[in-house]
Amino acid sequence: MNTSAPAPRYFALIPCAGLGSRAGTAGPKQYERVAGQPLVWHTLSAFAGVKRISRTVVVVAPGDGFFERNPTTSALVVPVGGPTRAATVSNGLRELRRAGAVDNDWVLVHDAARCLITPQLIDRLIDACDGDEVGGLLAHPLADTLKLGEGGRVAATINRGDKWQAQTPQMFRLGMLRQALEGAGEGITDESSAIEAMGLRPLLVEAGGQNFKVTYPEDFAMAEAVLRGRR
Description:
Elements: E1 10-15, E2 33-34, E3 37-38, H1 39-48, E4 53-59, H2 66-69, E5 76-78, H3 85-98, E6 106-109, H4 119-129, E7 135-141, E8 146-150, E9 153-158, E10 164-173, H5 174-184, H6 191-197, E11 203-206, H7 217-230
Parallel strand pairs: 1-4, 1-6, 4-5, 7-11
Antiparallel strand pairs: 2-3, 6-10, 7-10, 8-9
């Protein structure tokens, strides 16, 4: 009798409950149109292009009616967004469990507003992390000189040699990530930070500089140019 555990599956979890206050938009930035479509459509399209992803769960704020008004995605949309990213992701993990995911399955958490992600980058992360004991994240080595500021003036120059800019997706086992978030509190800004707080060292998987998060008003024009250039 074969008693081996089933092979872990891959799930995507997209936190989509933020307001994007720095973006200068009238509503949540993830629903602003970029290159002819709502920004989040580009994000979901990339994950739909990765056949290894068993299911994508999008976590929106309670009362968010965008996906009801625009029912064009096969993703599971759940209105359980919390007041912080950590709470939103934790609530999303619970919904993944209800959808059939188990602790040994992989979860790729990705920012809804990081709309320039590609299926190729997602596949690169999966390939790199699949056999890893911890998991990892897409990241980009810093090219700019870093300055420490105090009162609007430079206090110090920081060596950039070993510095990376964290991106998403960030890929960890569901059970490990759930445990890490429970212990890390609400102040973390990404999933890797929670894993690191457990004394673990996530894998850095190099990605390009185009996988940036749309955050400020000028970022929309840059994202638009990149998306139109890919057509």
